[in-house]
Amino acid sequence: MNLTRCNWTQDDSLMMAYHDEEWGIPLYDDQKLFEFLVLDAFQAGLSWKTILHKRKNFEKAFDRFNPKKIANYKEEKLEALMQDAGIIRNRLKIWGTVKNAKAFLEVQKEFGSFNQYIWQFVNHQPIVNNWDSMSQVPAKTPESDAMSKDLKKRGFTFVGSTICYAFMQAAGMVNDHIVTCHCRTKKKKK
Question: By C-alpha distance, which of 76, 77, 57 is closest to 65?
């Protein structure tokens, strides 16, 4: 059966699975939200396909995206990550992941959960857009601008508005599936 998908999947099986099973589906689990923060930060300047194909390597290298462990990484661990060919070996992004883990834990302390904090930028309700084609999808929005500004104020890095909008799409805070996409109405919660 031929399913209509958003065209960014590029007939890549991993991209199609991610599109069908994760992208645009509301996500409320702090651990998964942190994973997407990490992956979207590493995506800066790269394609999502590159990151997705290294996702399992990132998961292994960064202790299954455990923010408590990452926040305590020492210099030796960071240098070991710089030698790991399975991930993106960008010093600023690797060190930024530790900074983001620490900021993430502070947000959890203040709000009770990261989920409670991050969903406020969309009034705790997914924004469902009605795009006819992916060319209509914005790179950033007033909501992603506000999120970016607040995350930076809280000490996060690699959280520009465009990265924040990609995160919002990944976490299902916005549903940007085009109107003809078979995933358009999925409402599964994780």
Answer: 57
Can you identify the CATH homologous superfamily of domain 13-175? Hypothetical protein; domain 2 (1.10.340.30)
Q: pLDDT (tens digit, 9 = 90+) per residue, 98-127?
A: 999 999 999 999 999 999 999 999 999 999
Q: Is the pTM of this model over 0.85?
A: yes
- pLDDT, one tens digit per residue, over 69-104 is 999 999 999 999 999 999 999 999 999 999 999 999
d(C-alpha 34, C-alpha 19), whole Å: 19
User: How far, in Å, CA of 190 to CA of 186, rounded?
Assistant: 12
Measured distance CA(16)–CA(9) in Å, rounded: 5
Q: Where are the domains of the chain?
A: 13-175
